UniProtKB/TrEMBL annotation:
PROSITE patterns: ARGE_DAPE_CPG2_1 (PS00758)
Extent of the signal sequence: 1-22
Cofactor(s) listed in the protein's UniProt record: Zn(2+)
Annotated Peptidase M20 dimerisation domain residues: 215-330
Matches recorded under SUPFAM superfamilies: Bacterial exopeptidase dimerisation domain (SSF55031), Zn-dependent exopeptidases (SSF53187)
Record key words, sorted: Hydrolase, Metal-binding, Signal, Zinc
Keyword Hydrolase in annotation: yes
Name assigned to this protein: M20/M25/M40 family metallo-hydrolase
Domain of life: Bacteria
The UniProt record lists the keyword Signal: yes
InterPro entries tied to this protein: ArgE/DapE_CS, Bact_exopeptidase_dim_dom, Peptidase_M20, Peptidase_M20_dimer, Peptidase_M20A
Taxonomic classification: Bacteria, Pseudomonadati, Pseudomonadota, Betaproteobacteria, Burkholderiales
Organism encoding this protein: Curvibacter microcysteis
Amino acid sequence: MFNKNGLALFSLVAALCGTAQAQLSDTEQKIVAAVQQRSPAALLLLEKAVRINSGTLNPQGVRAVGELFRAELDELGFQTRWIDMPPAMKRAGHLVASHEGGAGKRVLLLGHLDTVFEKTSTVPLWERRGDRVRGQGVNDMKGGDVILIEALRALKSVGALDPANVDVMLTGDEERAGKPLQVARADMVALAKRADYALSFEGSNKHQGVDTASIARRSSGGWVLRVKGKPAHSMGVFSNASGYGAIYETARILNAFREQVIEPSLTFNPGLVYGGTDVSYAEDTATASAFGKSNVIARDAEVLGDLRYLSPEQGERARQKMLGIVSNGNLPGTSASIRFTENYPPMPPTEAGQQLAARYSQASQDAGLGRIELLDPGLRGAGDVQFVAPYTVGIDGLGAQGRGAHTDEEDLEIASIERGTIRAALLIYRLTLLPAP
């Protein structure tokens, strides 16, 4: 059912949905009307949230956005609580909200309060540009947070929220997750274990003009390569006595990675390379320093890289190949070691995920908003939905549409708030209150 890039084939969608579009029920038409009536107010809520700087390392700002959204969820009848993280983690914590209905399916809705724009950012908080808005975190992902809340509000307005079982978790450290991850995501995992579905509201992408969602996302982890050589006068380089030095051995290893480890959906990027006679790295500022001379063979070299893969099996293959390259065939006079870390686990595609995507696409088509296709996982970064994927059926990309996420030009298409809210509200309604097709 999947191609070599891990993309779901939409023959299943056609089989599940049929060729004729189902009509919206009376209740669903009321849901759509409620969303459309609230569109101006939804934009105002988004502006309030975006005008608060909530860079991950600004805990006061993250909490302020959390309080803004908490008030909205309280008004909708949710039981809300703030989860503090240990002070050593230097993170604001998370907002959790729960709504207990009847005995139907339970959905977990995911968003995050933080952005990549810290307090020192010079990017405008909110800048209206016709039918678009530029701002800090406007599509990643405060636009998605607003869609999540407005979808619940539309359900509430027609009485469809009262019988529904819904949990919401808005994390305060998605952009720079606190360590240890087992603590930072423990509450999310607990919620996932009791959920039938998890819907994540990261930004929605278009691919070749068609709206997309994601049921597969690659891991996000890292590796540190450390290489040792013999410091000596450069006149002896390449000799058995002096060897090749740390920098040549580093180059050999990196080139061997490129030649021998490549496979579909797998990437490994050396983001920082430094070497010389003495080297050091400051993690808090992500800066390296090195001392060396052109006529001295390098003693030390280090490389910081990331590693992304689609399945645990692919990740293990990559690590074993990289370990083999590092440990074997070292140039004379050198040695090397490599250490791996994993931040976000992989989320491989599943048939259950395909079925959920099919229902999302059908809801969109029934509302006259067109089909939804699955995005190549190589075209997305990592996200919180990956922590819940082992325990429930997840889908991501239900948020707003924009451009330039994580850059000074991050913006949002205003109309995408209404589209996303309609789609999300219909999907939540169908998942919680209607039987699966």
